[in-house]
């Protein structure tokens, strides 16, 4: 079963996410802005495993976010056990898309999609997806 999921979720990473007291809003649930931070943590983990951020920065480029969509399925509260999963769902010559799911107590709490690119740090213009990442993604196809 895990093999099937890996094929559908290239470069998937998983992260246990602690819910902090400052993540909770006045209604007693995790504030929507916190999900953006969790997605960032998941993307950094994906990069750590597949294209450590120090490499592109040293080479003069970095990933950027072009858009985020989050669909909330159920609220998350302070003492819930939260797991995040993120994978590379699409890769074109210049753009990437990741998908994510946030689970709370083993139930789906949110799904998200983020789109982005890599840019040249000197001029801010998009560059082709790094070959190392393209190669790893293609291995799953």
TrEMBL record:
One of its GO terms (molecular function) is fatty acyl-CoA hydrolase activity. Keywords: Hydrolase. Coiled coil: none annotated. Transmembrane segments: none annotated. Pfam families: 4HBT_2 (PF13279). CDD domains: 4HBT. InterPro entries: 4-hydroxybenzoyl-CoA_TE (IPR050563), HotDog_dom_sf (IPR029069). This is Acyl-CoA thioester hydrolase. It comes from Chlorogloeopsis fritschii PCC 6912.
């Amino acid at each position: 079963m895990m093999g099937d999921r890996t094929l559908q979720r290239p470069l998937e990473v998983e992260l246990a996410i602690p819910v902090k007291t400052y993540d909770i809003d006045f209604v007693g649930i995790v504030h929507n802005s916190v999900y953006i931070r969790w997605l960032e943590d998941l993307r950094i983990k994906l990069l750590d495993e597949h294209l450590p951020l120090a490499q592109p920065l040293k080479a003069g480029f970095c990933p950027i976010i072009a858009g985020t969509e989050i669909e909330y399925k159920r609220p998350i509260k302070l003492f819930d056990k939260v797991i995040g999963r993120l994978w590379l769902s699409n890769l074109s010559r210049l753009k990437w898309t990741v998908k994510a799911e946030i689970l709370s107590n083993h139930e789906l709490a949110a799904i998200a999609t983020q789109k982005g690119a890599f840019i040249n740090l000197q001029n801010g213009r998009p560059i082709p997806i790094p070959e190392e990442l393209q190669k790893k993604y293609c291995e799953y196809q």
